[in-house]
From TrEMBL:
This is sarcosine oxidasee (formaldehyde-forming). It holds the Pfam family DAO. Belongs to the MSOX/MTOX family. It comes from Caenorhabditis nigoni. Keywords: FAD, Flavoprotein, Oxidoreductase.
């Protein structure tokens, strides 16, 4: 049996790394376990860039973003390292969505502006929209340097005395009659009082008897050249915003970022993907629509970009819940010592610091200090399914991957 810990966090992506850091900061002796090497590309937390923004369709999460901005500022001062860049966010949509988001931001006194679609090019001449679109500009939007941000939380966790084991998959956890938990890995076993699973799409493997109704997908992360090399600067951080597109008429969503990952290459992809394989791997071949959808949008709305084919395409695992809210908190009221944090794909990086703080406070039994307007939700369907399973099969004494 290995050493005892107050908390074992399983999964060292952005949710797990933020959670482990805050657990250790609260004085909890914490072990962070990762099945792959740190910074691996098998999940959802790799790469150089993610979007941060106040603009959000779910207003309850806006205060969490404010908490993230505070933590970024704290880390940048402490580490002397630039972790994000304030570029501004453009959110453009058909229908009434922009006005709804604007209403949320007004209620929270968040600075922003709303413009007709045909005026977007006055702000960003690389883009072209007509009057059926509406744009929202969030001046606090920007790009998170994702790999640096992830590494910062892991390093600060270790600086506080936290322990990280990489390349050590977890096999199972077992609850004891006294309320303790034994976590068994391929290398050792650890005693703890709390386990927090922040494992992305692998959550279904650790709780195989629970129908999470989560269908993880494989995104095609596309990078595109400009039509002319002399215009490559038009997609850099000085000239191009981060942007989100919601074409509600055609049920299409897109994400765009400037050339952080590859100089002179626009990062632009559809917020959709292919199903993962049974063993939660990427499919061997991506469907053509994951390229055709952004290609079609580029042709119509980003004339500076060569939409004939991507410069390169990378893969990212994407996990979201049925109601598209994050899954945060105890797995069940009957098992308060087993917590989960996940389903953050698409927007999780910008709220991960606040979610990590909230999970740590739950683990420590402390009153939450995250903003009171932020209601962290465990998917109701999950709770009902767990109660039904326990009623039919008895307590979840042991769960194995």
């Amino acid at each position: 049996m290995g050493p005892n810990f107050d908390v074992v966090v399983v999964g060292a992506g952005i949710f797990g790394s933020c959670t482990a850091y805050h657990c250790q900061k609260l004085g909890l002796k914490t072990l962070l376990l990762e099945q792959f090497n740190l910074g691996h590309s098998n999940g959802s937390s790799h790469g150089k860039s993610r979007i941060i923004r106040y603009a959000h369709a779910s207003p309850e999460y806006v205060p969490l973003v404010g908490d993230a901005y505070s933590q970024i500022e704290e880390f940048e001062k402490k580490r002397g390292e630039k972790l994000w860049n304030k570029l501004g966010l453009l959110w453009t949509a058909t229908g009434n969505q922009v006005n709804e988001i604007s209403g949320h931001l007004k209620n929270l006194n968040i600075e922003h502006s709303v413009i007709p679609g045909n005026e977007i090019s006055n702000h960003y001449p690389q883009l072209k929209f007509d009057e059926k679109w509406t744009g929202l500009i969030d001046p606090m939007g920007g790009v998170i340097y994702a790999n640096k941000w992830l590494n910062a939380f892991q390093e600060e966790f270790k600086n506080l005395g936290g322990v990280i084991h990489e390349n050590e998959p977890v096999l199972s956890h077992t609850e004891t009659e006294t309320g303790g938990i034994t976590v068994t890995t391929v290398a050792d076993s650890y005693s703890t009082t709390k386990v927090i699973y922040t494992v992305g799409c692998w959550i279904t493997k650790f709780f195989p008897n629970v129908n999470f109704d989560i269908k993880p997908t494989s995104l095609a992360v596309c990078y595109w050249n400009t039509k002319e090399k002399k215009n490559a600067h038009l997609v850099d951080e000085k000239h191009f915003p981060v942007f989100i597109v919601k074409d509600l008429e055609n049920d299409e969503e897109f994400l765009g970022l400037p050339d952080v990952d590859y100089p002179g290459k626009l990062k632009f992809l559809t917020d959709d993907g292919d199903a993962l394989t049974e063993d939660l791997g990427h499919p061997d071949k991506q469907t053509d629509r994951l390229i055709e959808m952004p290609r079609g949008f580029i042709k119509e709305h980003i004339p500076v970009i060569d939409g004939s084919k991507p410069f390169t395409v990378e893969k990212c695992k994407y996990t979201s819940s049925p109601d598209h809210h994050y899954v945060i908190g105890p797995i069940s009221e009957n098992y308060p010592n087993i917590l989960v944090g996940g389903c953050g794909s698409g927007s999780g990086f910008k709220v991960a610091p606040g979610i990590g703080r909230a999970l740590a406070e739950m683990a420590a039994g402390k009153e939450r200090t995250t903003p009171p307007r932020c209601e962290l939700k465990l998917v109701k369907a999950l709770q009902l399914l767990l109660k039904d399973f326990i009623h039919r099969n008895g307590p979840l004494v042991k769960q194995e991957c």
